[in-house]
Amino acid sequence: MIYRQIRTLKPVEQLRLVEMHRAPARILLTVVVRPLALETVVLVEADGRCYRDGIVLDWIMRIIAIRTLREFWQRHPQAEVSLRAWYAEVSNADWKTPAHIKAAQRDASFLANNRAVFNFKGNHFRLVVAVRYTQGLMFVRFVGTHAEYDRIDASTV
């Protein structure tokens, strides 16, 4: 989801996401959470910072170009489960350095230009992303088979 507190909601806490909508200007989303009778408004800026009452609460890891992943798994259905699992994990991640990625994804490799390479399905598929750690962004630069990966320069793609 959008903000760590929202991502970890449990039915016992009786918290519920009431409203989520796009907001103007620099605010990407406005999220309203109601724990019992209190209402909390969380603003998510386009750069990934989450605010409540003017205080930065958390950063989210946003993935740019999910459409690229969807198009790939439509052509290669055997990759869908792995890519969806990767997307779910990264969406909930708070990775600030390559070491954070490596701790969560042991098979990840790192290249020049802040590129990270992830292997899927026994190294049959590869995913290259450009990472902006300070902004919590991952840009999908390439997804393909291992043979296709061998034909590209992953540090410049």
Automatic annotation (TrEMBL):
The name on file for this protein is: Type II toxin-antitoxin system HigB family toxin
| Pfam families per record | HigB_toxin
Q: List, alphabetically, the GO terms of the cellular component aspect.
A: toxin-antitoxin complex
Q: Which InterPro entries match?
A: Toxin_HigB
- The source's superkingdom equals Bacteria
**GO MF annotations, alphabetized:** endonuclease activity; RNA binding
